[in-house]
Design brief:
The chain is an alpha/beta fold. It has two domains: 151 residues, 3-Layer(aba) Sandwich (Alpha/beta knot), CATH 3.40.1280.10; 59 residues, Orthogonal Bundle (Trp Operon Repressor, Chain A). The chain contains eight helices and nine strands. The strands form three sheets. The protein has a five-stranded parallel β-sheet, sandwiched between helices. A two-stranded antiparallel ribbon has the order 3-4. Strands 8-9 form a two-stranded antiparallel sheet. The termini are far apart. One of its GO terms (cellular component) is cytosol.
């Protein structure tokens, strides 16, 4: 899989993508990445990518021409046209399902805005417009790194253990179960006995139940997509009565 980013700060990506799991996956050529400097598609001596917005208002807006020229130029390179992704509060919420869908795409181009955003006409280039959440970032580079990280973890070989990605929060519309390591007792807090039993069937059952209870208490909005049995719905309702809000499913 190939990721590319269009940015006025292309140097910010490599320190993260060359470290830890991302770095190992990149060196193993599980994915590739290249950052492009948007200023390379400007035509004035100051390499200007922004201008004042029509109608007035604070801040500067990214000009459409460099973005159009860059996306069109990059799209014409290589065998596969990239899937072009912009970031905006107007976009679809970024979630694990979208990450899984994007991870099946051979080539992705991430357009990273700065300043007060981009000229609205540039969004006509987008295949997808994505929002990471109800907050504002200084630029799209952090959003692009989050997206890349979430996708790369799903690529075969990236994590070493293929079960790791399947067993994490949101993979089955449930939060991940609680986890523990040595020592078995610490400051009066003990690891649940079942996890020390060596009985894999009991451990699996406990983990499913714990994931269900944690989701019911903290993210009940996820439960509708979790494929729960009637008994599990009953346990979820009880968990929510004990420690979480109710969505009317009583």
């Amino acid at each position: 899989m190939r990721f590319e980013a269009l940015s006025v700060f292309p140097e910010v990506f490599d320190p993260y993508l060359d470290a830890s799991i991302m770095g190992r996956a990149r060196r193993a050529r599980i994915f590739s990445f290249q950052a492009h400097d948007l200023r390379d598609w400007t035509h004035d001596r100051h390499r200007t990518v922004d201008d004042a917005p029509f109608g007035g208002g604070p801040g500067m807006l990214m000009k459409p021409a460099p973005i159009f020229e860059a996306v069109e130029d990059l799209s014409a390179r290589g065998e596969a046209r990239p899937r072009v992704v912009f970031f905006s509060p107007c976009g679809r919420p970024f979630d694990q399902g979208y990450a899984a869908d994007l991870a099946r795409t051979p080539r992705v181009l991430l357009v990273c805005a700065r300043y007060e955003g981009v000229d609205e006409r540039a969004y006509s280039l987008a295949d997808d417009v994505v929002s990471l959440g109800d907050y504002v970032l200084t630029g799209g580079e952090l959003a692009a790194l989050v997206l890349i990280d979430a996708c790369v973890r799903l690529l075969p070989g990236a994590l070493g253990d293929e079960a790791s990605a399947q067993d994490e929060s949101f993979s089955a519309s449930l939060l991940e179960y609680a986890q523990y390591t040595r020592p078995a007792s610490y400051r009066g807090m003990d690891v649940p006995e079942v996890l020390l039993s060596g009985d894999h069937a009991r451990v699996d059952a406990w983990r499913r139940a714990d994931a269900l209870e944690r989701t019911a208490r903290w993210r009940p909005d996820l439960l509708d997509g979790a494929g729960l049995t009637d008994d599990e719905w009953a346990r979820a309702r009880e968990a929510r009565r004990e420690g979480g809000p109710c969505d009317g499913r009583a």
